[in-house]
Amino acid sequence: MISSPPSVKLLLEDPLVVNPGETITLVCVPSGGDPPPYLEWVRPGGEELPKRSVVNGGTLTIPAVTVDDSGAYSCVASNNVGNPAKKSTTILVRGLRKGRFWITPDPYHNDDNIQIGREVKISCQVEATPPEELQFGWLKNGRPLRSSERMVITHTDTEVSPGTTNLDIIDLKFTDFGTYTCVASLRNGGTPEISIDVNISSTTGGSSPSDPIPSSHWLQLMRSHVNGLTLCL
After folding, report:
1. Across the chain, what does the average pLDDT equal?
2. What is the predicted pLDDT for the residue at 205?
3. What digits encode the pLDDT tens for the residues 178-197?
4. What is the DSSP code string of 41-95?
5. Do 104 and 218 share a domain, yes or no?
6. Largest CA distance in the chain
7. What SUPFAM superfamilies does UniProt report for this protein, alphabetically (predicted)?
8. Which residues, including other chains, have CB under 8 Å from residue 22's CB and lie 6 or more apart?
9. What are the CA-CA distances from residue 114 to residues 37, 40, 53, 121, 231 (Å)?
10. How many angstroms separate the first and last alpha carbons of the chain?
11. What gap in Å lies between CA 10 and CA 97, rounded to an integer?
12. Count of beta carbons in the 10 Å neighbourhood of residue 103
């Protein structure tokens, strides 16, 4: 009887992109080896499999996946002939996290005051999995805002994480007062969107678009909220 070392293959996509809460099944089958190899699923670095996972031979089932389950998984085949064989895959659980924003010039820095007639840039940054599915949108007072000559919207390459979008308000005017919302979502859904609100308002009461606009008219930018959590600058 001639013995032969093990070989193995995976019956799944790589990477495997899934939504939070889904049940996923990773299937590994021997493609060679005599005697028939023993199969087991492991994680790199000795990390344990999710406690709720179920292993049945070469099949690994993980119910209700979370972002914590993301990462590499390997199927190892061994039969005490030659070296064990291994095939790996990566699980990516869709998600958005770490929403943050900043304003240029910084209104909380004494040397960088925001004035009527100046340019203001609001930047919004979000980490996404997978990064190529990230998409941004802007709202003003709850209504969609489109890029124009005076309201310029730009985005960085979405395949580079974290993703960033910028709103440049050119020649700031009283009519620009309001609440600006950056909305981040994933193109294929599967996870709640993240929204960041920034309120631009006058620090002096009684001002209106018909009032004279002093060149040193200061503005107040309120702290924003990301899904109800206050972001501190």
Report:
1. 83
2. 45
3. 899 999 999 888 788 888 88
4. EE-GGGPPPPTT-EEETTEEEESS--GGG-EEEEEEEE-SSSSPEEEEEEEEE-E
5. yes
6. 98
7. Immunoglobulin
8. 64, 65
9. 69, 61, 54, 10, 20
10. 72
11. 31
12. 19
* Range of the structural domain that residue 184 is part of: 95-230
For residues 122 and 58, membership in a common domain is answered with no
**3 state DSSP class of 133:** helix
The answer on 123 and 15 residing in a single domain is no
Per-residue model confidence (pLDDT) at position 157: 81
Q: What is the mean pLDDT of residues 62-79?
A: 95
The last residue of a domain, from among 71, 93, 115: 93
Q: Does 75 share its domain with 100?
A: no
**How many residues in total does the chain contain?**
233
Q: What percent of the chain has pLDDT over 70?
A: 82
Q: Are 8 and 87 in contact (CB under 8 A)?
A: yes
The amino acid occupying position 27 is: V
Residues 189 and 169 in one domain: yes
Query: What's the pLDDT band for 214 if we cut at 50, 70, 90?
Result: very low
Task: Give me the mean pLDDT over the 126-137 stretch.
Answer: 92
- The residue behind tokens 């889904």 is 22
Whether residues 103 and 149 fall in one domain: yes
Reduced to 3 states, what is the DSSP secondary structure of residue 98? strand
Whichever domain contains 226, its CATH number is: 2.60.40.10
How large a percentage of the chain has pLDDT more than 90? Answer: 57
Which one has a higher pLDDT value, 124 or 232? 124
CA distances from 33 to 4, 80, 85 (A): 5, 10, 10
Q: CA 23 to CA 45: how far, in whole Å?
A: 24
Question: Looking at the predicted structure, is the pLDDT value of residue 215 above 80?
Answer: no
